[in-house]
Amino acid sequence: MRSICAMRSLLAASTFLRSTASSLRPASRTLPSRLSLSRPRLGAARPVSAAAAESRGGGGSDSGMDDHLVRSGEIHVIVGPMFAGKTTALLRRVQVEAGNGRNVALIKSDKDNRYGLDSVVTHDGTKMACWALPELSSFQDKLGAEAYDKVDVIGIDEAQFFDDLHDFCCKAADRDGKIVVVAGLDGDYKRNKFGSVLDIIPLADSVTKLTARCELCGRRAFFTLRKTRETKTELIGGADVYMPVCRQHYLDGQIVIEATRIVLERSTVIHAMK
User: Fold this and answer.
1) Do 242 and 226 form a contact (C-beta atoms < 8 A)?
2) Beta bridge partners of 132
3) I want to staple 226 with a disulfide (CB 3.0 to 4.6 A). Which of 35, 43, 98, 189 is the partner?
4) Where are the alpha helices (DSSP H) in 137-246?
5) Active site includes 158?
6) β-pairing, 220-221 with 212-213?
7) Which residues pair with residue 77 across a beta bridge?
8) pTM
């Protein structure tokens, strides 16, 4: 009898708990059958400037992420010793982009006045109009905001002379969606880092290292040998000042140049003492 009473008590308690929980449970809501997670679809590939103009005009994607993807730019770096054809490769790339309907602009340092300031010129005489600037940060102001927005491709020659190369490339490619093609020396006549060219390698979509032909033996030349006694890093000159050389002739040449320098310095001192 006691067990039957105990079982009845448990059943009653269970019924009470179920009814209490039911009264405390919030009313159920009907969930939508499909979550609305759709986002605007990206259209067909277009020139970067068109996408940028559409975005700036307010008629572009509703998603900030999509807008960033459409407007992302590129950075391509061309390096090598002097007389390796860096400027030729730069002009060829820029001309191809222009032939594909893109708006292009060329920049070079105003320090390089060997062939005038209004053109980028190769050693064999090929040339293309350019902007000669002391620093890259002034380019947008010189060109004007509206004209800058329409530029798709920016070519930079003799890039080692621009101290603000890294910041400019970051902004032009990452923020403004430009294709930036950079040509410059990766090393100076001492085979040390030259300017900021190597600093943009981590930013680059591609890096091309060109070689010249050794002026002394005809083998591939990776280095630039300075013929003069001048020791400052930035020394504008052509074949009268520099020559492309292979590793062996770079080492041999440096020995000859150093020995010549020592002899000349001693001669100068002896002459002054007389």
Assistant:
1) yes
2) 108
3) 189
4) 139-143, 145-150, 165-170
5) yes
6) antiparallel
7) 182, 207
8) 0.69
pLDDT in tens, 19-75: 444 443 434 333 333 322 222 222 223 333 333 444 334 444 444 444 444 568 999
DSSP string, 241-257: TEEEE-HHHHHHHHHHH
**Whole-angstrom distance, CA of residue 38 vs CA of residue 218:** 62
Task: Name the token pair of 214.
Answer: 């050794």
Helix (H) or strand (E) holding 224: strand 223-226
Tokens of 49: 């400037």
Interval 155-174: pLDDT, tens:
999 999 999 999 999 999 99
In the chain the domains, ranked by start, together with CATH numbers, are 48-210 (3.40.50.300), 211-274 (3.30.60.20)
DSSP state of 112: -
**Which residue, among 147, 152, 148, has the nearest Cα to 179 in the 3D structure?**
152
Gap between the Cα atoms of 41 and 119, Å rounded: 42
Q: How far apart are CA 28 and CA 6, in angstroms?
A: 36
Helices (H), the chain: 2-24, 48-56, 64-71, 86-99, 139-143, 145-150, 165-170, 247-273
Alpha carbon distance 130, 117 (integer Å)? 8
C-beta pairs of 64-68 under 8 Å, 24+ apart in sequence? 66/39, 66/40, 66/42
Closest CA to 250 of 230, 231, 223: 223
Q: Which one of 54, 74, 97, 158 is the catalytic residue?
A: 158
